[in-house]
Amino acid sequence: MARWVLPEVDHEDVERLERELGVLETTAEILVRRGYKNPQEAWDFINPTSNVINDPFLMKDMEKAVEVLLEARKKREPVLIYGDYDVDGITGTALLKEFLEKNGWNVLCYIPHRVDEGYGVQPDVVKLFAFDGVRYIVTVDCGITAHDAVQIAKRHGIKMVITDHHEIKGEIPPAEAVINPKRSDDPYPFKELAGVGVAYKLVQALSSRLGNKLRDDLLDLVALGTVADMVPLLNENRYFVKKGLETLSKTKRPGLRRLIRKLGLNGTITAQDVSYKIAPKINAAGRMGSAEEAFNLIVTTNYAEAEKLVRRLFNLNYLRRETESKIFKEAIEKIELEGLDKDPIIA
User: Burial level of 40, CB count in 10 A (0-12/13-18/19+)?
Assistant: First the structure.
């Protein structure tokens, strides 16, 4: 029977962390195993502060993105936010919508249908909004592969700002601005932001340019999307999640308040609560129906609508679980019927 064999740790390192940080031996050992032998680095890891926040203008094309959006605001032109249908994309879209609307932008939002349209910025959708007079588009958690959509946007006089965090394969689209810390030419020091994290950096940059002080009340959405997208909880992500969970625990958003209450969560919301309870309910909308229902839950200011949407998400999540259970059962039956369980790769 296989068993885990953990490598030995330097007990002097463990004892030093115990002594200088005042933590339990088990905690000190975990920190050492994670590579945190220096007491200050270990302390920063377990107590992240805003000191880890980087200047958003360090990101490639951030200056261009800000100028494009400020131009739209000055011209009073509508800005279309084109998001993705998972929790990361939904929270990032909601976050950007809230900030832009509060600061004088005219905003439209669009989240594609997972089954009918699929992932990414669809050229036909860009064309439809072009016919409706939209001349500015900003993407959230998508767009890094949207070459065709960008070409159509340019053909119709649309300026597009892409915010994304996915790995880049090949050339980047020729949009007015492409914000993605994973760009090979991007000097931004932290590369592991979620899509909502990249959207938040754009909000930070816009807030700075407008001369506004950005409050922490958007960090509940950053924490939701960051945890749900399973990016490494290090550096800025760790701070965003710590502060965001505190904000989420006392959120004033009717939809999230109703969802948290329905889930029976009390006190401080944890990352585990988000991963195993909150995020699956939000994701259920995009997987079984339209992600717009989850988006509306987050942005609604109406408690009656919030209650209705929470019930809908619970029903969709139940349907998702039933569907997955049926598929799993059918897969097992097929494996046994065809003798595939004898295959060593499956067994």
Answer: exposed
